[in-house]
Design a protein that fits this description.
With 205 residues, the protein is α/β, with parallel strands linked by helices. It folds into two domains: 76 residues, Rossmann fold, CATH 3.40.50.20; 104 residues, Hexapeptide repeat proteins (UDP N-Acetylglucosamine Acyltransferase, domain 1). 13% of the residues lie in helices and 29% in strands. An eight-stranded mixed sheet has the order 5-8-11-14-17-20-22-23, covered by helices on one side.
């Protein structure tokens, strides 16, 4: 069966193109971004976020995949595109039936989400990341590829967890915090902090 529901991708990202194609649910209409996706003619460049009112007026059934990684941008754009954003879960992800996935989330190929995980609205969980049991992730947060969030971890809203980072059981990460790639978090992180290294420590800006 050929997918007929049109979708636009907000932020030019090939990983999300691949995800959408793998679901077989949507037909990619184009990308909303300041620049075309790798300057390729394969996927139409629709313009910037500013064209959305005009675009949606002509295509009221057009859906939106919120692909951008930056949590602050995800929060802002979620409001801008509210009503058109869809939830995307790769058929190659394992998502427990006992988990809760918030509206507008993106769950990529190879992701594992175990029982009693709560993923807030418009979160993004990238390729091969794992969320273990009872992890709680606040809205608009991004979990980068290969990150490991262990059991009973609490992550606030608007958090970025870098590629390959590990968060030990029962740690709490405050709103807006940033964990660097490969960081190993063994203690709580306050809101807005930047932590890097093994074991992870706070970097003063």
């Amino acid at each position: 069966m050929v997918a007929t529901q049109a979708i636009a991708i907000v932020s030019a990202e090939w990983d999300v193109v691949d995800l959408i194609e793998s679901t077989g649910v949507y037909r990619i209409h184009g990308v909303l971004d300041p620049a075309p996706i790798d300057s390729t003619p394969e996927i139409m460049h629709l313009g910037t976020d500013a064209v959305w009112p005009h675009l949606s007026g002509g295509m009221p059934d057009l859906r939106i995949a919120l692909a951008i990684d930056d949590p602050r941008a995800r929060s802002k754009l979620y409001t801008h595109y509210l009503g058109a954003i869809v939830t995307l879960i790769s058929p190659d992800a394992h998502v427990s039936r006992h988990a809760h996935i918030g509206h507008g989330a993106i769950v990529q190929r190879g992701v594992t989400i175990m029982p009693h995980v709560r993923l807030g609205r418009a979160c993004k969980v990238n390729v091969n990341a794992t969320l273990h049991h009872h992890a709680d992730v606040g809205e608009f947060s991004t979990i980068a590829p290969g990150a490991q969030v262990l059991g009973n971890v609490t992550i606030g809203s608007g958090v970025y967890v870098g590629a390959g980072a590990i968060i030990r059981q029962r740690c709490r990460v405050g709103d807006g915090a940033f964990l660097g790639a490969g960081a190993v978090l063994v203690r709580d992180v306050p809101a807005g902090a930047v932590v890097v290294g093994v074991p992870a420590s706070r970097r003063l800006l």
